[in-house]
Design brief:
Elements (H helix, E strand, L loop, with lengths): L4 E9 L3 H12 L2 E2 L9 E5 L8 E6 L5 E8 L2 H10 L3 E6 L2 E5 L5 E6 L13 E10 L1 H14 L4 E4 L5 E5 L7 E6 L7 E8 L2 H10 L3 E5 L3 E5 L5 E5 L13
Parallel strand pairs: 1-4, 5-8, 9-12, 13-16
Antiparallel strand pairs: 1-5, 2-3, 3-4, 6-7, 7-8, 9-13, 10-11, 11-12, 14-15, 15-16
Length: 247
């Protein structure tokens, strides 16, 4: 089934949602939608005119939160059936949409497509464009096979390092997926990645907005936002999402 649009969901503790809202609207140059849900736990980060939203925020009652993907499709039930056939579990069915769990345990959602088609622009040299799944070694191969089979029309290929696998959407979709094989066994989790033209400049801007540095890697920097969630600044091209061309 064709994926019409993708949303990155920022999941943060419900008691810290105000901090998450303030930080991520500043980082993405968006404004907050009206809160919705039984507990006012959902919000969309609305970009400027002429482009469509691709980032949402959710308050969670337990844990530190993380991230997940929503896949917008023409027929959510058909997408759910395909996912279940490939090994997913349907966790909850709602009117017009559903929550699922991948074979490794990562939550994701099937939602109706509402005509979204124009991705937001790069913001001050960076773009939130990737959800990274951190997968334990015992589940990694099966998880790679699951996502490669489910996301019809996406390119599934090894990453630049052996512990990474990229699942890249067709041109125009705003959020892609990276799978990272962990070095130890622990439950699957997910975090956000931003593609940055200049990691250090973006880090300094995020620190000014209240984030904190956690770790510097060779080609990425791990940060913690004011709501306690970790995310990465990566040295990828914010326009294409790919690694910088090498001579």
């Amino acid at each position: 089934m064709t994926i019409r649009w993708t949303y990155a969901f920022i999941d943060r503790p419900a008691g810290l949602l105000d901090r998450a809202h303030g930080f991520w609207t500043a980082v993405t140059d968006t404004r907050l939608s009206e809160l919705r849900g039984e507990k006012q736990e959902f919000a969309t980060l609305l970009p400027g005119p002429g482009v469509d939203a691709c980032v949402k925020v959710q308050g969670v009652d337990a844990g530190q939160g993380g991230a997940h993907l929503d896949f917008a499709v023409d027929d959510a039930r058909e997408f759910v059936a395909s996912a279940v056939q490939l090994g997913a579990e349907e966790v909850a069915e709602h009117e017009g949409w559903a929550v699922l769990r991948s074979p490794a345990g990562q939550l994701f959602c099937a939602v109706p497509w509402h005509g979204e088609s124009v991705r937001p622009p790069v913001v001050r040299g960076s773009r939130l464009d990737q959800v990274c799944l951190d997968v334990p070694p015992s589940s990694y191969d099966a998880e790679v096979a699951f996502w490669g089979g489910l996301l019809d029309g996406w390119e599934s290929l090894p990453g630049a390092l052996p512990e990474f696998h990229v699942v890249k959407p067709p041109s125009g979709l705003p959020v892609r997926m990276l799978l990272q094989r962990l070095g130890t066994e622990r439950p699957v989790s997910a975090h956000l990645d931003l593609a940055c033209a200049d990691i250090e400049a973006t880090r300094a801007e995020h620190e000014r907005l209240g984030a904190r540095l956690v770790h510097r890697g060779a080609h990425w920097t791990v940060m913690r936002d004011p709501a306690g969630g970790t995310y990465c600044l990566t040295g990828r091209d914010p326009e294409t999402g790919g690694l910088p061309s090498r001579p």
